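This follows on from our talk about sequence and fold. Can you supply me with one protein entry, sequence and fold together? Could you add the entry underneath, on a fresh line?
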Amino acid sequence: MTLLPRCVLVERPTEFRELLARHGTREQARFFLGQRGLRIEDVEERHLRYEETRARVIGAIPPAWRTAVVERGDLDRFLFAADDIVVVLGQDGLVANVAKYLNGQPVIGLNPEPDRFPGVLVTQRPEAMADLCADLVAGRAGVEQRTMVRAALDDGQELRALNEVFVGHRSHQSARYVLDVGGVNEHQSSSGLIVATGSGATGWAKSINQGRLALPTPVAPELAWFVREAWESPATGAALTAGLLAPDGVLRVTSEIDGVVFGDGIEDDRLEVGWGQRVEISAARERLALVG
């Protein structure tokens, strides 16, 4: 890290800004909400509180540092530098949104509304921003290296995710494929499969797992995989439905439909998988460096 790093603030528009973008004026947004028994004043108050917090966070960045601001919708077009310090101000999902675009840069997750957001990934108070910056530069900040998952197609395309990747039909209908894991393979028909990290163990993976496996911790190199609603028939089996993938393990899926792969629930940012294409899923080399 250089002596004068760049601080990149990652955020998403507030609900109030999204309403104005959709309806044009505050009065039209007020009318829209009022027709549904909601108050524009409540949304606006949260927006103003966020703006105050945002101003304090930006004010806590050392004056000599370079700064940049990027919204969630522009992440795929933003070029992160190796010495950036990334500050995420918002919900936990915003950390997952940015993680796949990074390569070891430290991430500070700030929770602007602890009464609304769980703070699983945005673990820090905005008031701690100045101290966190100083600790990072001094090399005394605690950094948790969280495992990520990588999905690679046989044509060279790939994506990474912090929580999980999904492989299946684009509309979550039945998908047919050959699953190969641990040297055992099976033709299957299911509503898709997910491969999750320990960070994803409290989300989608937890609802599918229902206590069957001891899920990995966020820093553990193992991955957990689950087949959703496997259908047993004369041509398809349901013996391989869940398991843990070793740190150096690879799960392979050979598609027998035109399917998709996407990560962390972002279906718009997906890879198209043609009939006969193979997807290999494993732990990613890159990890999320989350400041603890």
Observations:
- The first helix runs from residue 15 to 23.
